[in-house]
Amino acid sequence: MNIEIKIRRNSPSKTLIHETVVRTDERILSSDIFDRDSRVKRPDHGSWAEPGKNIPVYHRCGVLVVGGGPSGTAAAAAAARAGADVALLERYNHLGGLSTGGLVIWIDRMTDWEGKLVIRGFAEELFDRLPADAIAGPAREDWGSQDAVKAAHWSQRTAAYHGVVTWSPTIDPERLKLLSQEIVLERKVKLIYHSWAAIPIVQDGAVKGVVFESKEGRMAIMADVVVDATGDGDLFARAGAAYVNDIEEADVHHCMNTSWLFGGVDMNRWIEFKAGQPEAFTAFMARGREQCGLFERPFVSWRNDVALFMGPRQSGYSALDVDDLTAVEVRSHRAMAAHLDYFKAHAPGFEDAYLMLSAPQIGVRHARRLTGVGAVLRSQWPDGVALADEVGVTPAVSPKFPNISIPYGALVPQQLDGLLACGRHISCDRNSHGFMREIPQCWITGQAAGVAAALASRDGIAPRFVDVGTLQSELLAQGVYLRAGAGQDATAPATAEAGV
Fold this sequence. Notes:
Blueprint: E1 3-10, E2 16-23, E3 28-35, E4 57-66, H1 70-81, E5 86-89, H2 122-129, E6 135-136, H3 148-155, E7 160-161, E8 164-165, E9 170-171, H4 173-186, E10 190-192, E11 196-203, E12 206-214, E13 217-228, H5 234-238, E14 243-244, E15 256-257, E16 260-263, H6 267-276, H7 278-292, E17 299-300, E18 306-309, E19 313-315, H8 322-346, E20 354-358, E21 363-364, E22 369-370, E23 390-394, E24 404-407, E25 419-421, H9 430-436, H10 439-459, H11 468-477
Parallel strand pairs: 3-19, 4-5, 4-13, 5-10, 13-25
Antiparallel strand pairs: 1-2, 2-3, 6-9, 7-8, 11-12, 12-13, 14-22, 15-21, 16-18, 16-20, 17-18, 23-24
């Protein structure tokens, strides 16, 4: 159930603001959502006919993963572990996507409401291998605790919800970049940075590879199976697969932003102020909105002297429009500077703050969602049934729901062959997308897609014909959490409901 209360007001900068409280089954989100600036429609400058030419094939492999974010990194690592010859194509100079370059270093809940770790496999390996000083979060023995003092402490540090302490740590993004890279290289993945996939190569209804752009010009990579881990469904959309794009402008889950870090802070002093002086904090936030227009409160990071700002959420912009992406970046960088001036002057613990880093990657929540042969659906939440083609489990959005099954069918296009999807653009409805786009869930769906792609490549079959039992066995061998009941009578993925 979603209940949204909106107050529309003008900021001093004439930016229209939705002052929004969104009550969801997950938690209460309090946020300002800022409308897009009006701009003139892009003029029609005509077109240019691109001359045809032969494109050199740069590489051939069994599994090609396009996008090195959380899901793509997990997919490449899992496919290689399953024995595939893997290539990973990434447009930036690092892996991890929004969890590193996007500075979404607050990793959402990986435990269920009883404290059981259900986001496992590749995700668990990452946290086992990260240095201790690169992670901040509650001790394992406190996961699931309902102790009021512990819950109050961790609720100020993004690790307790509904009075329950959860494993939702903050991490050092540079350490995660390095570890993600080293894992895929250990497994002999061919890693290709600074390369942007442009066009899928489709033959007879199946994706056979991609054309990508780099400093060397346009080249191709051919593969048995392609994993679309672009986050926005760039490949499956351009290959002709069905998808939905039902963005709601005033929905906090569909906004864009650019995150940033301030250094030289004392977050413990800030938390003492925020929690101990609620009236003063409310006045501080109100004054900040008046002075800055676009305004955001800070979150803890992996260090007490570094503050994380997720960035003011901006609505009405499309992640598929280059002018919109530019506008969000411009507004966000201006907001970062305005926040520094205001916080240094008025926020306890920020007297010596400085601009540390703005995220190299923009924070996109939603662009496209695949229409798959299966889906994660709101109607499934109350039952908590382990679906026959379960390839992962996600914590429920609130304690009143059981854990939720992620089906293999959510990764498989209804018609298109030769391709699997993973990450925030998998097949799910709008309600379920609110949590399926989060980083832990992207690790889970990426690992499932990588293993399935490896099996399809090995057996010379389309991904939709991968044996679910074999897939689940390999996922279990890789440490993924699956439940009893999954795989029984698994003759085919569950069919998606209409409208997903």
